[in-house]
Design goal:
With 529 residues, this protein is of the alpha/beta class. It has helices at residues 14-26, 62-72, 79-98, 131-145, 223-230, 263-266, 292-306, 320-326, 328-336, 392-411, 435-452, 459-482, 487-508, and strands spanning 2-10, 31-34, 51-52, 124-125, 149-152, 156-161, 181-186, 191-202, 235-236, 241-248, 270-272, 311-314, 346-355, 358-360, 372-374, 379-380, 456-457, 517-518. Strands 1, 2, 5, 6, 7, 8 and 15 form a 7-stranded mixed sheet that branches. A 4-stranded antiparallel sheet has the order 10-13-12-11, with helices on one face. Strands 9-14-16 form a 3-stranded mixed sheet, with helices on one face. Helix 1 runs parallel beside helix 10 and helix 12 packs antiparallel against helix 13 (487-508). The termini are far apart.
Length: 529
Amino acid sequence: MIRKFDFLVIGGGVAGMSYALQVAASGKGRVALVCKTTLDEANTAKAQGGIASVTNLEVDNFEKHIHDTMVAGDYISDPEAVRQVVEQAPAAIERLVKWGVNFDKREDGTYDLHREGGHSEFRILHHADDTGFEIQRGLMAAVRRHQRITVLENHFAVEIITQHHLGIEVTRRTPDIECFGAYVLDPDTGKVDTILSRVTVLATGGVGAVYSSTTNPEIATGDGIAMAYRAKATVQDMEFVQFHPTALYNPAEKHPAYLITEAMRGYGGILRLPNGEEFMQKYDKRLSLAPRDIVARAIDREMKIHGLDHVCLDVTHKDADETRHHFPNIYKKCLSIGIDITCDYIPVVPCQHYFCGGIKVDLDGQSSIHRLYALGECSRTGLHGGNRLASNSLIEAVVYADRAAAHSIDHINDYDFNDQIPEWNDEGTMTNEEKVLVAQDVKEVGQIMSAYVGIVRSNLRLHRAWTRLDILYEETEELFKRVKATRDICELRNMINVGYLITRQALERHESRGLHYTLDYPRHALDQK
């Protein structure tokens, strides 16, 4: 089956929906929004802390936000990308509010701002402790109301379409690679449909499922990055995987790990050992409010020194009613496992959380493939550099969605549909009866990445991961060629691709920088211990 849309958006989080709403409002054509599950399962909905923007001009300004972002990114962020996001953030907040998103306000009508690790001022807008869910709710309602947007839920993008599918050899040195749409699996028919588009946008989220423990939902399998890489797009900074310092330690719950928001440390939470001893003073003068990479490595080191499976976050010194008011969902979650955060320590452990690398894009969200944009966590804009500053991700997604929408609206009439694209050919393939192989391989990828490509790395560990991933790659590609495309085997292919890219680019960086810390190139005393 062949379908045509002027704009094809793959991914239904804040980036994909923001873009879809803006291009749909332009009246320049029809929009397809492809989601591999349902709209409400996007990773955006899991973001608790908030969204960063300078709004209190009495004490805050753009230069402070820019400086904080550059410091957190270990000074390898792209200055132009940082300035663009920071300066356009207030307008992006206004767009979200216009689309129906609510942020908490004080009695005087000003925003109730939080402060998080790495921020020099209170600049985090939030909705209690479920900001991502509120943003997703507001955008979903707006998307579902819009007549020009067709939402294709439970559809899975298998590959993006380029000249390669016309029988033309495409390599990483091929100039002028173009994207003509995507092959998309329809679960109702079991068939892979051809969706042709004039503009294609990848907004597929992160890579958390590549690790055995993550705050991401299981759907975060790096699909967009893997598809773009196979199509010969440029990917960059794949080694920078962010581990959130404070996921709830709850061995009974595996996927996803429950996040204890950064805002709780901004609120005054103190990291302690289970015996009550503070430890962050040994690692950074900012104590518990140091950037995430520093805090995560400090916790990892303390756990190894003392043989612990977790440390603790303490807010028992704060007013109990205020704590329950600011963090109602965290309070309820912890209470469900017997922890009253107003009088008990919260057991926490570092956990894979966010991905700073991905598909390299310019200031308009354009990838190295013509007519293909990448937005949100699957993109590498340059904003985050070596490490993301807390709450900069949601605002990055909205700002770049605006930039990409404006650029593609201006150029949409320059592009035509390519009617020469062949339909997906699965002749001679069979139904995959070896589901156990796929399930086992998914588990193995997570074990390899968590054991060898985690918070602290070494060349020996990275080479071991490379060797094992290479075996899985050969086995999976052989199986993929024999069987009909299904979501599970496509996700496995993507996870292996992403794991390989993280490992390879980690090996290529001969220094400890930002989130990439290796024992072979120590930078601080922490790395040598």
